[in-house]
Amino acid sequence: MQRLTLTLAILKPDVYAHPIHHKRILKLIQNEGFVIAKETVASWNQHQAKHFYKEHDGKFFQQRLVEFMSSGEFHAMILAHKTEDAITKWRGLLGFTKCYKARHKNPTSIRALYGLSDTRNAGHGSDSLESFAKESEIIFPGWDSQQWVTDFQETSG
């Protein structure tokens, strides 16, 4: 049996506020073989956004990112994929953080197609298993990812 792995995906406020883009990205996610294991539409105040992006404390873009992520609703998902590394697969589909770079080097990526700037870049993806554990606990407190994987594999054969 192929291993099922998980990652955190966030479709940021700029995408969630645009229903056509949001729907197209969800279709791309599905077409790449991802399954949505858990999802929520949420919004943060600036304190919550700053807590989530704590790793960026002191960086020049942190305040801009915090203000943007607290500007409206976003769509957060735990994505599952039958691959050895769902994190890398999702980040590949997302594309480079800098949208201009994504447009030149990976023009079919989500950020190339729907990103507006380095901050308003359509999405977020955990960059490691450690980040996935930390970030998913912030958004989905108490959710048991291992139990979900076990249950999913039992019901899907």
What does this structure look like?
This protein has 157 residues and is an alpha+beta fold. 48% of the residues lie in helices and 17% in strands. α3 packs across α4. The model has no long low-confidence stretch (mean pLDDT 95).
- The fraction of residues assigned to DSSP E strands is 15-25%
- SS class: alpha+beta
Count, helices: 9
- What percentage of residues falls in helices of 4 or more residues? 40-55%
Total strands: 4
Task: Give the oligomer, counting copies of the same chain as homo and different chains as hetero.
Answer: single chain
Poorly predicted runs of 5 or more residues: none
Q: Sheet with the most strands?
A: 4 strands, antiparallel
Strand order of the largest sheet: 2-3-1-4
- N-C termini distance: 9 Å
Overall, the morphology is: globular
Mean pLDDT: 95
Could you spell the SSE succession in H and E letters? EHHEHHEHHHEHH
**Rg, Å, rounded:** 15 Å
